[in-house]
Specification:
Order of helices and strands: HEHHHHHEHHEHHHHHHHHHH
Radius of gyration: 33 Å
Helix content: 55-70%
CATH superfamily of the largest domain: MetI-like
Strand content: 5-15%
Strand order of the largest sheet: 2-1-3
Structural class: mainly alpha
Distance between the termini: 78 Å
Number of helices: 18
CATH architecture of the largest domain: Orthogonal Bundle
Length: 438
């Protein structure tokens, strides 16, 4: 038979090789596309969970920034407030302002006469509603004898009802407010005497057994003092240690052992540092329990490894040519480090320090071990005063049974996250501000 029109036998293996190569390339491209899709799916999955977390916090906690108040016409009766008429500050401070509130409620609902019903009526307002009347009188005693319309703080159960967390259609036995109390609240709402206003107690007061009075200010001040102590100790110690290990320490087994231990300490659970602080600072040195000073010392031990590692990495990133050029013109080793290396490494050191401080701000386990879980109402005036911290305050509120503490827990978490975002933003700004080109 004729061979005309047939390919040469030598070209068939070459075509077969090209087909195999093309098929292999197509398989690799398919794998790459699948890998990219898997990576994108993992990213979207994580972002989805993060979005659900933030949305849940915002939906649950945004209402804590508002508090229900009831407008009452308070008759500042001189016979109750200052029967002697001397305007003595002690007498004005200890007057029975709750009687004025009860009189106002009785005038508004004159048909309520039974003792049990009166008790339920008086429970519509917070037990601390008289504090605002007292502050008004102490600020200006001339108001005694007048009738003032004041927005008084409602009870936490009324607050939950107004915010919609209590179903008004539920059977009476399944809610904390009776049908009669709900009718009284609805009557006040119909007259425009119930409104949601800024919850200044949340930002300006300390912890309280009454949810409507509980705030984060005491815990915020305690956290501030702790971070101040931590920053004052951890930054200079961490930077000095990193400079010595990276620039001056001889390379031997002892420095290797120190470096290994520093790296291991960075991974130690935080509660171990709490146990160390309890044994060392409280039991051995006798420092006051539940004080920001002790909390700052414990957090210093916890953040030091992080700052040392970040500072060493920043020093290592400085090119050797900088050191060689400075040494070449006659600078001493200390001058090279202080005038050339350290300024160039400072942005990385500051970034690592702020990240370590942000981690310290969110820690609660070591603080629980040194007694900062105590119920503290007063705002601390110094690092030696008893205090709590914002993460511990969140822990305490999360364990409270009242529904009103649930929204305050979420709101406090939002505030804590806002602080962390600000601190991380400060780290970025400082890095940009002090960054030098070389």
């Amino acid at each position: 038979m004729s061979d005309v029109g047939q390919e040469p036998a030598a070209s068939r293996p070459e075509q077969s090789t090209r087909a195999r190569v093309a098929e292999g390339l197509e398989r690799r491209y398919r794998r790459e596309r699948r890998f990219r899709l898997l990576g994108l799916a993992a990213l979207l999955f994580g972002l989805g969970f993060l979005a659900v977390f933030f949305v849940t916090l915002i939906v649950t906690g945004h209402s804590a920034f508002l508090q229900t108040r009831i407008l009452m016409d308070i008759e500042l009766d001189a016979d109750v407030i200052d029967p002697d008429g001397r305007r003595d500050p002690i007498a004005l401070e200890t007057a029975n302002y709750q009687a004025l509130i009860r009189d106002a409620l009785t005038r508004r609902f004159p048909d309520v006469t039974e003792r049990q019903d009166l008790r339920a009526l008086y429970a519509l307002l917070s037990p601390a509603a008289d504090l605002e009347i007292r502050a008004l009188v102490l600020d200006d005693p001339a108001v005694i004898g007048e009738t003032r319309s004041l927005w008084l703080l409602a009870d936490d159960d009324v607050d939950m009802l107004v915010k919609g967390y209590i179903d008004r259609g539920q059977p009476e036995g399944r809610r904390r407010l009776s049908d009669q109390q709900i009718r009284w609240v609805e009557a006040l709402e119909a007259e425009g005497r119930v409104d949601l206003k800024l919850n200044r107690y949340f930002f300006m007061s300390g912890d309280s057994r009454d949810p409507e009075l509980a705030g984060i200010w005491s815990a915020t001040v305690g956290s501030f003092f702790m971070l101040l102590v931590t920053l004052a100790l951890s930054f200079p110690l961490g930077v000095a240690t990193a400079v010595y290990l990276e620039e001056f320490a001889p390379r031997n087994r002892w420095t290797d052992l120190i470096e290994v231990n520093i790296n291991n300490l960075a991974a130690v659970p935080s509660i171990v540092f709490g146990l160390l602080g309890l044994a060392l600072f409280i039991n051995l040195f006798g420092l006051p329990r539940s004080a920001p000073l002790v909390g700052g010392l414990v957090l210093t031990l916890m953040t030091l490894p992080v700052i040392i590692i970040a500072s060493r990495a920043a020093l290592t990133a400085v090119p050797p040519s900088i050191r060689e050029a400075a040494l070449g013109v006659g600078a001493s080793r200390m001058q090279v480090v202080m005038h050339h290396v350290l300024p160039l490494a400072l942005p990385g050191m500051l970034t690592g320090t702020i990240i370590g401080m942000a981690r310290a701000l969110g820690e609660s386990a070591p603080l629980l071990m040194i007694g900062m879980v105590a119920f503290i109402v007063d705002v601390p005036g110094s690092p030696l005063d008893p205090s709590t911290a914002l993460p511990v305050q969140i822990f305490l509120w999360a364990d409270s049974p009242e529904r009103a503490f649930v929204e305050r827990t979420s709101a406090a978490i939002l505030v804590l996250l806002a602080f962390l975002v600000v601190m991380n933003g400060a780290a970025i700004l400082l890095r940009k501000r002090f960054e030098r080109r070389y």
